[in-house]
Records
---
Amino acid sequence: MTRMEPLKLAILGCGTVGTEVVRLLHEQADDLTARIGAPLSIAGIAVRRPDRDRGALPVPRELFTSDAVGLVKRADVDIVVEVVGGLEPARSWLVDALRAGKSVVTANKALLAEDTATLAAAAADGDTDLYYEAAVAGAIPLLRPLRESLHGDRVTRITGIVNGTTNYILSKMDSTGAGFGEALDEATELGYAEADPTADVEGFDAAAKAAILASLGFHTRVTAADVYRVGITDVTAADVAAAKEMGCTVKLLCIAERRTDPDGTDSVSARVHPAMIPRSHPLAGVGDAYNAVFVEAEAAGQLMFYGAGAGGAPTASAVLGDIVAVARNRRLGRSGTPDSAYANLRIRPMGEIETRYHISLDVADRAGVLATVATVFAEHGVSIQTVRQEGRGQGGEALLVIVTHRAPDAALRSTVDALASLDIVRQVASVMRVEGETAQ
Amino acid sequence: MTRMEPLKLAILGCGTVGTEVVRLLHEQADDLTARIGAPLSIAGIAVRRPDRDRGALPVPRELFTSDAVGLVKRADVDIVVEVVGGLEPARSWLVDALRAGKSVVTANKALLAEDTATLAAAAADGDTDLYYEAAVAGAIPLLRPLRESLHGDRVTRITGIVNGTTNYILSKMDSTGAGFGEALDEATELGYAEADPTADVEGFDAAAKAAILASLGFHTRVTAADVYRVGITDVTAADVAAAKEMGCTVKLLCIAERRTDPDGTDSVSARVHPAMIPRSHPLAGVGDAYNAVFVEAEAAGQLMFYGAGAGGAPTASAVLGDIVAVARNRRLGRSGTPDSAYANLRIRPMGEIETRYHISLDVADRAGVLATVATVFAEHGVSIQTVRQEGRGQGGEALLVIVTHRAPDAALRSTVDALASLDIVRQVASVMRVEGETAQ
């Protein structure tokens, strides 16, 4: 293989992921050179505090700079690797880099979910590569398969567990019966949850990934704003127990669906919310902080991708894979598979999406209650799959546990509102969506 | 997107997979055109009997020809899709096509496992693409992730269930307690096993896939001849029961490992054999005819890919994905990621590989037997993890169930031979390798 001038990298950010990227670039140098056909060299690393001691890192101190803009603009920089995150200034840096024809590798899911269009346009202007395998599900090779391997097929549904923090919390609640707060505390202690866990537990992180997966899977543009989002902060130990009762477990799911509407046109939807899924579902067994994405395609059938969804090393592995890809493309004077968003599909709002609900009601324990409740469902065109009634002995109260058939989410929500307003209903104890075929 | 002249396909073979490929090319035509930036058209389909009625297929009869050589040579053919299988004449057709600069998409695992080197060289000569995602694990996007996504990482181990027929048979034996013959008969009835199941049940199919996975994962050449192979025909109901006893299930595993030898050089090994794995292992839950491949890499950690490993539609999905990839490459006047076999690693023979054995011995039920048996293990430098002794009452016989620690396979095999020659050993009832960490 003919040796060539080194390809020069500008690395933006040197946190957990950046540090691992630099370490791997050093450790795997020979293999990377062989795979690319040219060596890689680091032109500079942009950080907030260049003079901070990074003793462990195998790079000379003078490579660190606080001038990201200047580093990106440097004529000798071929590839810009962004592991800073956030919308700005990351977007401006990457747009400049792409327009200047530099290849970009980024793990910035928030930016991609917000504005892939701008980045993709800049990449087209510069006739260069924009790769971001690390933005979703860490090291799990997922975007490339969706972008390329399944290009000859029609993806119909993507169901994923794409946030390790919430999966760790829900797994704990399931295995120990703990409440949300207790499980969150443990996750924080063990470093699975950040000091401010909002982005994870409120589902923002998963929603960003849902937007990226839906865009790639369905060849259309879906942004975070298009994603219906509910986090796990309201999931109670009672919800988890109720799930167990029906052979299910509770997961925070990211679900992207393609549907052909009655008028023959296709539309897509993307949503993130807690849901009960049968323990027999391949995703039910995904525990702790692991991620897994279940893809259904017309010809391929059911596929599942499983692995570590976060962490410095796994994420860095995905970043390195992209670096090798764009570096090889540069060496061969070409660019890789661009995002295709040709489909321009309508985004279906949550109210139109057909889901199933699991509803627990504290009701007065007297004759006719079930009839009254059943009538409310009927009035909203929601059909009931199962009802379980448990007398509670004290205070003439009973618990009604209802699982519905599939119905438009809007109809289900208004049914719950109507139930809440019945005077025989003391309280709506729990409401959760159900995904997958349940036994009962 | 600028429309272009159609890219012309020569399809070699029109069996289960070929038929699905043709159907998908027709059904997905508009999407494929949008994704490629140019339409695809079928120049011809080479089959043994061109005049056979293929009524259902949406292609004009005159496209069928028995002259594969002529079709491949046609100047207007851009892409050759081979779904015939077998070494010859497939190899000659593909070598001609590649040398002539035509892109090749093939699902021919036997040929790739035997002689990827020749095909890769021809692809280099023609500066064109050789893609074969469909050759391993049907629709599961696996080769592209290994070739590209994990290029920045170091794959250490690949463990897979890559043959649906044998997995169906072993799953049946596990769930019903049936013997091999009975389970095979059922698999045949249900169409999971071919009339002549040799290639599947003797592990030849899995060995071919092992060679391909090892080559891609470790960037070196491994051929089917390098793969140690044992099929499942000798797996008995007793073996499966014994596995259950220790919380395991029996799977036909394909295992490719990279190891750094004491002298600092790396070597690789590839093997296919039945093994007991703990039910807690992600692969243990892979039932029926499904495939799954478990990949371990230094930075990425543990990844698993799961899906339908065979069948017309899933395999066709992988073929179509490759067709889109090579078609786009042609449209952009480039070629994709070539195989890299730069590593040239030594192939480690089975005898050197460290494994663990589960051994059941019918022994005379008298004092000192265990001591004698233990001495044999010690003499061969094999250390025992657990021994279970069961008196059998009748005829003064006992059953000794031994699980060893890891030891070179050669040492374990000679231990078994030595045990068989002891006169206190009535017979070696069962011997099977054990993979993964077992509880006891």
---
Amino acid sequence: MNNLSNSPKANGFRMPGEHEPHAGIWMAWPDRADNWRNGAKPAQEAFIKVAMAISKTTPVTMIVNESQYQNARHRLPSDIKVVEMSADDSWMRDIGPSYVTDGKERVGIDWEFNAWGGLVDGLYYPWNKDDEVAAKICEILGDRSCRAPLILEGGSIHTDGEGTLYTTEECLLHPSRNPDLTKEEIEHQLKEHLGLEKIIWLPSGLYNDETNGHVDNILHVVKPGEVVITWCNDEFDPQYEISRKAYDALCTETDAKGRNIVVHKLPMPGPLFITEEEANGIDASNGMERTPGERLAASYANFLITNNQIVYPLLDAKYDEEARHILSELFPGYEVTGVKAREILLGGGNIHCITQQIPKI
Amino acid sequence: MNNLSNSPKANGFRMPGEHEPHAGIWMAWPDRADNWRNGAKPAQEAFIKVAMAISKTTPVTMIVNESQYQNARHRLPSDIKVVEMSADDSWMRDIGPSYVTDGKERVGIDWEFNAWGGLVDGLYYPWNKDDEVAAKICEILGDRSCRAPLILEGGSIHTDGEGTLYTTEECLLHPSRNPDLTKEEIEHQLKEHLGLEKIIWLPSGLYNDETNGHVDNILHVVKPGEVVITWCNDEFDPQYEISRKAYDALCTETDAKGRNIVVHKLPMPGPLFITEEEANGIDASNGMERTPGERLAASYANFLITNNQIVYPLLDAKYDEEARHILSELFPGYEVTGVKAREILLGGGNIHCITQQIPKI
């Protein structure tokens, strides 16, 4: 509710990296039948599996629309907290608060949300319930929130916790987000709200990603100075050029601390496409492309780092084990848990997109 | 979520008296236009005043339906926590959890709720959202809840925290509540869930009370062995006989500890009646009697005891000060705060009915 009188940065706040300790993970129960097939039932099963995996090491809270409360409460294990809260869909990464901390207090940054593009190319209308989620979560947690005058989704940024933010020009400079702000003004807002020194811009996100290229579907910060990106070996695939340019951008930059950035690679699943059976199970809508043959924006980079554990999507039997092996090497001492995630992918994102961490102070 | 494997009583739990320390008070924002006049706006103002009074000494959380969330958040001071939660109306005493504790843990007893009489003589339909409130609150607080196989509202009982419960035959034995249970079976359920030794039955509650005579509108426990009741000096008033019989029942009983019960008296306001202007502002409904001239079930006994403070309803300028004086005498060292409460009364209850305490462990 309360706002910070000065900028969070000026007050000594910074956004921790995802690899830092978590007090909990919040998620949102999927139920819209125009995005999730078969009345969202297969997606709900997948979300349950993700929540159960996370809850092995970190407490999970699931927000649920009133109409689905009893169903969610009965299906989820009792150690997962279920809280009634209205949302238009279930992308907690994008609608939840981006927490910053000064080491003593935790404050949730509450971005403006317009469903990935508002009336220009947003995915649904209205989106007001989604937009209210971040402040409601902060209120339940007893934390202050700070409304930021910037249209932004949590999945369009990655931080290293030491002053560096990674994002994409495709998304943050898209005319459907903040057309009245220059790149410098957007950088200023990000720096002031998240306590940053430097923004590293990739040209674009994953091929055919309806979020306008969220960074979290192509890159993940492993730790300060080290990232992992989705790589494509097929030079005839449209992803090839995108990954190549991301790699080049990262290798020619230094981070906020002046470090060269070590770039690791994850294989690209598929390519994967929506089947006719899958498309037929989805209610018609004006916003979302869910037709048979539509290419899915599938990426192993869309994993979650939480306390002592990596939860990553199983997407393609051909590459799942290779991805696990790479993640195990990148995160020594972490348990690497794979969860079948095609049903999440069908909705337009993956495990990172449906989770949001609350940092431990 | 979790249920107790044995009865709370067998596990060493008891319901504290209202005079014991509180961790917080929960309330529910009024919005139904078929109960609260003028779109519930005057009632909302009254609820705000009650919340602000309580929050001087005890943290307050207000649950709000999604459609009214922003309005409630903007109108309430920022130190009052606002949580989205669906409810059919706003009687937190009756729909919230009745907490029991063993000194180490707190467990919410989650009674079945049927809107004060279900399909027999209930006040509205449906009531499923109300019925889900208790468990949802416990879940948010991180407490276990225990569903009790008994239709009961929190306002129909008062405990002294030392094994005694006060209630009315009019309500608990009403055919619209638990017609399949005998009086002994109802006593057994109450004793096992609330850790009691003795139930003291008054014949009936306040005259023309649409709750079928909730005890909290005619009596309040001051402390173990001591109660205060609404008294009526006019022997031609229907309340006269009711109060007289309550007094006699109390004076001829001893409590769970074998004490004689000291009975204090509060004056009866009015009698008060709904005006034509008030009735005209209420949407028509099938369940509730809100016609001009309808007698209101007004009582000063419907106050809240919270940490170091009594919050009591201002109802009738002729008796408000006398009531304050009596309460000040009964609760030495407590601040006695009066809040204008006619708008709450018009909805069918008062300050005790719209609040529910969470005991401090």
